[in-house]
Amino acid sequence: MVKPVKRFPVHGWIGLGLVTVFWTLNWTLDGLRTQWAFFPLWLGYCLTIDALVFWRTGTSLLSRNRRKYIGLFIASAPVWWLFELANWRLQNWHYDGTETFSTFQFWFWATINFTTVIPAVFGSTELMRSFLTKPVKGPTIRPTKTTTIGFFLAGWAMLVLMVAWPRVFFPFLWISLYFILEPINIWLSHRSPRPARDSGLYAGTGTTSPRAGTGTTSLVEWTKDGNWQPVVTLWLGVLLTAFFWEMWNYLSYPKWVYHVAWGNWFHIFEMPLLGYGGYLPFALELFAMYHLLAGLFGSKKTDYVMKPPEA
Predict the structure, then answer these.
(1) Distance between CA 304 and CA 183 in Å, rounded?
(2) What residues form DSSP beta bridges with 196?
(3) Contacts of 30 (CB under 8 A, 6+ apart)
(4) Is the alpha carbon torsion for 260, 266, 272, 274 positive or negative?
(5) Are 138 and 235 in contact (CB under 8 A)?
């Protein structure tokens, strides 16, 4: 069961302080300022969200393993640079205000700020899981040989279409990598221990779910029993993060601005409405990328990101 703590953690107050100070500075100062305000603002977000999770559940990404929490920041920058690499072909966004930066200055500030992507999304996901604790029924997708090969080939097909006809197939950037990487994680066994039935937080539901303390498996192994709870909480978590990304960006400088060939209407801040749909598969891509990197660095059976509250 969930074991909330009575006092709001100290690192949460630090996070709230960072958000208050750098949100104010970022929206009130003139000229270039977001390049140095972005990281402390989003570090504050990450710490605040992590503290909320710990306050509600007694566990969080930071409290479980500080070294791995720092690792989320380290992994985040190269992961986002992959999307920047793809954007050289797509030209779907650019950073207004960076024209005065040298190449080194742009790469320096961008790399620092990109470190906050993964911890922000995964922390927000944990917050959503603290509310959505029961299985969510959905279509059954099993990690069979046919499914994994089908996913893998579909991912490469989407990637080829995106590169060949970027003006039409640019949305495939936000889903193709998941279809490619999830099968690789399954084949390389970059998964956590298989779940037990009727145990821990999900006892009595009649579904396969993780025993408290052992964590979760790959997303496809959850969906093999029709349980989409990890997927839905990733979606809700990334949408929460996306709201703050887009809101804080709106009055920032430098800021990102979107350019898409179709669907460029009904903007919420800078982002077209349809663009928010791209955040949903993007969260799955981050999940797959994290587990690929964790596996390559020796943590093939990690339950760090999707660890359920103790029973």
Answers:
(1) 20
(2) 209
(3) none
(4) negative
(5) no
Give the type of residue at 58: G
Q: How many CA atoms lie within 13 A of 257 on its CB side?
A: 9
pLDDT tens digits, 159-202: 999 999 999 999 999 999 999 999 998 888 755 444 444 333 33
| Closest of 198, 190, 309, 247 to residue 26, by C-alpha | 247
Dist CA 170 CA 83 (whole Å): 12
Tokens at 77, concatenated: 């920058």
- Judged by phi (left if over 0) then psi (alpha if -120 to 50, else beta), residue 262 lies in beta
pLDDT tens digit string along 101-141? 999 999 999 999 999 999 999 999 999 999 998 889 999 99
Q: Using a pLDDT cut of 90, give the percent of the chain over it.
A: 74
Tokens for 263? 């669907």
pTM of the model: 0.88
E strands, the chain, in order: 93-96, 196-197, 208-209, 255-258, 267-268, 271-272
Question: What does the alpha-carbon distance between residue 305 and residue 136 come to, in Å, rounded to a whole number?
Answer: 19
